Amino acid sequence: SLLKSTAALGLASSLGLPVFAAGKIKPGTKAALIVVDVQNCFLDGGTLAVKGGNEVIPVINALAPAFENIVVTQDWHTAGHASFASAYSGKKPFETTKLAYGTQVLWPDHRVQGTADAELGKELKVPTAQLIIRKGYHQGMDSYSAFEEADHKTATGLAGYLKARGIKTVFITGLATDFCVAWTAMDARKAGFEAYVIEDATRGIDLHGSLAAAWKQMTDKGVKRIQSGDIAAG
Ligand code: VGL
Ligand code: ZN
Predict the structure, then answer these.
(1) Which string of b and e fits 123-162 if b means at least 16 CB within 10 Å?
(2) What do you get for the CA distance between the two ends of the chain, in Å?
(3) PANTHER family this protein is in (predicted)?
(4) Which of 219, 140, 150, 141 is nearest to 180 (CA)?
(5) pLDDT tier at 5 (50, 70, 90 boundaries)?
(6) What SS3 class is residue 181?
(7) Which phi-psi region, left, alpha or beta, contains residue 141 (left: φ > 0; alpha: ψ -120 to 50)?
(8) DSSP strand E in the chain: where?
(9) How far does residue 168's CA lie from ligand 2's centre (Å)?
């Protein structure tokens, strides 16, 4: 009955769980929106432009008012970073190398700290965001994930921040679906959060089938795949 479902919604919201009303998700106070790496680098004209990268911006801007908690991330590399092909003789972008922590894809030089390429897209409007987390700043180690670096040991502090604030659920958006978004979503699960990826608020790089592979891995880890239209307007 309507009364019963209204009571159930009230209970869910008092427990801080996302509430599904009329088929829509209301994020509530215990959820955070994570906006991954929406930086000039990935946008039109950037050093690693992702096809359709700019299209995520209006979607994220429209989602932002539905969230009380928003975290923004920035890929934030040193010059000559270990993830840059230019740091190795005889390597080209999109080839791989072996580093102490495993296989590393090599990228064009990108998002060097303090450069325009590393700035957030100027059309991105998430004024209520309370935390900007930067990652990938250790010279010898990459960090696709906003939670932990590529050695799967070094924490960025994001899990602690979210837990200290009672956040249980994260909704992940941004770029690129098959790298930083996917690793962030899977590490969110590993850290004990409920994790949703809002697909139309992401775009992938799709290197040798990496986009389909990332969705499979995310799904296997319990990451939920939704669309921005599944979220109730704020
Ligand atoms: C990313 C490649 C290199 C990402 C970062 O944000 O997905 N991809 N650095
Ligand atoms: Zn990077």
Answers:
(1) ebebeebebebbbbbbeebbbbbbbbbbeeeeebebbebb
(2) 26
(3) LD05707P, PYRAZINAMIDASE/NICOTINAMIDASE
(4) 150
(5) low
(6) helix
(7) beta
(8) 19-21, 24-26, 31-36, 69-75, 96-99, 102-105, 131-135, 169-175, 194-203, 224-226
(9) 27
Please say whether the beta carbons of 169 and 194 come within 8 A: yes
- Ligand 1 pocket member 176 (CB < 6 A): yes
- Residues catalogued as catalytic: 37, 135, 180
**CB-ligand 1 contact for 231 (6 Å cutoff):** no
What's the gap in Å between 143 CA and the centre of ligand 2? 7
Could you tell me whether strands 169-175 and 24-26 are parallel, antiparallel, or unpaired per DSSP bridges? unpaired
Q: What ipTM was reported for this prediction?
A: 0.98
Query: Residues 159, 164, 170, 175: is their CA dihedral positive or negative?
Result: negative
> What is the rounded distance in angstroms from the CA atom of residue 120 to the CA atom of residue 174?
11
Mean pLDDT of 9-23: 72
Which residues, other chains included, contact 193 with Cβ-Cβ below 8 Å and sequence gap of 6+? 159, 162, 167, 168, 169, 170
% of residues, the chain, pLDDT over 70? 95
